[in-house]
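Person: I have long wanted to understand how a fold can be written as tokens. Underneath my words sits a plain record pairing an amino acid chain with its backbone structure tokens. Those tokens are not coordinates but codes from a learned vocabulary of shapes. I should like you to check that the lines agree and flag anything odd. The protein I mean follows directly.
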Amino acid sequence: MKTLLLVMVVSLNLFVLNQGYAMSCNEAIAKTQAVQEVEYLRRWYAKATDQIGVATPESIAEGRAIYHRVFTADAQLDAGPDREPQVGPDAWVDLVVGALGELGPTQHLIGTQLVEIKSLELDDACNVVAGSAYMESYLQAWHEQKDEKVWLFLGTYFDDAVFILGTGWRIEKMKLQQVAGETRYMDAAVGRASK
């Protein structure tokens, strides 16, 4: 009986879709997808930052391209009290090159992420047409140094994101707050940075 009922519901849904009638919009699913898309901005940011840290012209160009997919053109980017705030992805690339250029390989690990969708506007087909979100993301960043040490940076990113029609979600405001940090010794066999 349950199987017959399921077949009837699926058939009715296919009939309604084939007849051109709109199905109801599931706002909860749209919101869940928006949360995931916002979270991925920070993950792509971590990949871009590690690419920029490789410090070759090709890796910097790859990181720059990703930053342009993550940030708005006029994003307000703040790395804390020891650095001047930057505007836009290209200025942020310059800051990252300056900060990571003297180090060896890096790995930026994004941990806990909390996203709050502040507003979400959907069209009749349940597509996002406007929205804003707030996100917090924990960070563990490992920076290999040339003296067989690794600098560990622990921090939290605080982001405001906005949905741009025809573009998607982008971070428009970012603040990085350091929570802790330390320098650790590595075994010489682990070190990869040139001396």
About this structure: The chain has one domain: 24-185. DSSP finds four helices and six strands in the chain. The longest strand covers residues 168-185.
